[in-house]
Amino acid sequence: MINRLTTRNQVYSENKTMAEKHYNIDYLSETMKLLQGVKHKSYTYLESTPDGGTIVDLGCGTGQDLCHMARAFQGNNLHFIGIDHDPKMISKAKELIETDNNVEFFVGDALHLPLDDEAVGGIRMERLVQHIAKPAALFKEVYRVVKIGGRAVIVESDWKSISFYNGNLSVSDKLNNYLSTKKVNNGKAAQSLTTYLRNIGFREITLEVTPFVLSSYNDACTYLWIDKMIAEMLTLDLITQAEHDDFVAAQKYADEQGFFSCSMNIVVVSGVK
Ligand SMILES: C[S@@+](CC[C@H](N)C(=O)[O-])C[C@H]1O[C@@H](n2cnc3c(N)ncnc32)[C@H](O)[C@@H]1O
Fold first, then answer.
1. 141 CB less than 6 Å from ligand 1?
2. Number of structural domains in the chain
């Protein structure tokens, strides 16, 4: 089922430094806490994967979701495979493997999966599709490896939905635009998932939208890296120094006054082959 020859041939190029990417290993642990509810909701779609089947977490990062599913579905006689193209993520994930949890992690590219056709009962992808510039190729590959009757479940952050309620609308519009059209490869992925699934042939599509509200500037910086993004926009000349300072001051003022608010939608989408 897992094609070991292909896994050895995977090439991962660190063409973006961790600072340029919108996540790193520590960031994934922080968001693990915040997104717990939505993550658990996504696991439930794969709960009824038939006995003896395989569940894949694609773009598994540090592997925490796969290990949670392995623990939650213990007794269902399932095999769990995590795949990520970043060897550092996979080494971190391997630290979580327990002796009897039937979990394996592999370095591999989502566009060239090291898996046989129809080898998988369920596949999960969280915050992966936003990084894929050619989503049609990804969904073709996902469709290939899922069994008839198997399910794909996707969790995505909707970068287009970020809203601030603290003044300075012009800079927040520019930030929104920067994140959804420049910074993130496929920053509008969340709003396109049902279309991607339908176009390749998945049916019984479901969609759930959950708004996340951050009520301090510190949380917005921790979970959405707002301070880093605004600073990056300044270095790219997308905003002026005055716009930068005014935006940050408006957020801090709202915080001090107790009315800071920033929200973003997270979607969970699923489909059956
Ligand atoms: C934002 S992280 C999310 C990680 C994990 N799914 C989670 O929710 O904690 C995106 C992950 O996708 C991986 N990734 C990005 N492009 C990929 C590709 N083409 N093939 C495999 N993994 C990829 C990254 O290395 C990273 O670990």
1. no
2. 1
Give, in order, the Cα–Cα distances in Å from 52 to each of 2, 48, 259.
15, 11, 51
Find the farthest-apart pair of alpha carbons in the chain and give their distance in angstroms, rounded: 60
Q: DSSP readout, 159-219?
A: EEEEEE-SS-HHHHHHHHHHIIIIISTTTTGGGGHHHHHHHHT-EEEEEEEEEEEE-SHHH
- H or E, element range at 31: helix 25-34
Determine the angle formed by the axes of helices 169-178 and 241-257, rounding to 10 degrees: 110
In testing the pocket of ligand 1, which one of 115, 131, 140 has its CB within 8 Å of the most ligand atoms? 131
Residue 258's domain spans which residues? 4-272
Residue-by-residue pLDDT tens, the chain, 273 positions: 666 444 444 445 444 433 356 677 777 777 787 889 999 999 999 999 998 999 999 999 999 999 999 999 988 899 999 999 999 999 999 998 876 679 999 999 999 999 999 999 999 999 999 999 999 999 999 999 999 999 999 999 999 999 999 878 899 999 999 999 999 999 999 999 999 999 999 999 999 999 999 999 999 998 889 999 999 999 999 999 999 999 999 999 999 999 999 999 999 999 999
Could you tell me if the CB of 61 is within 6 A of ligand 1? Answer: yes
CATH number for the domain spanning 171: value is 3.40.50.150
Smallest CA separation from ligand 1 atom 24, residue: 59
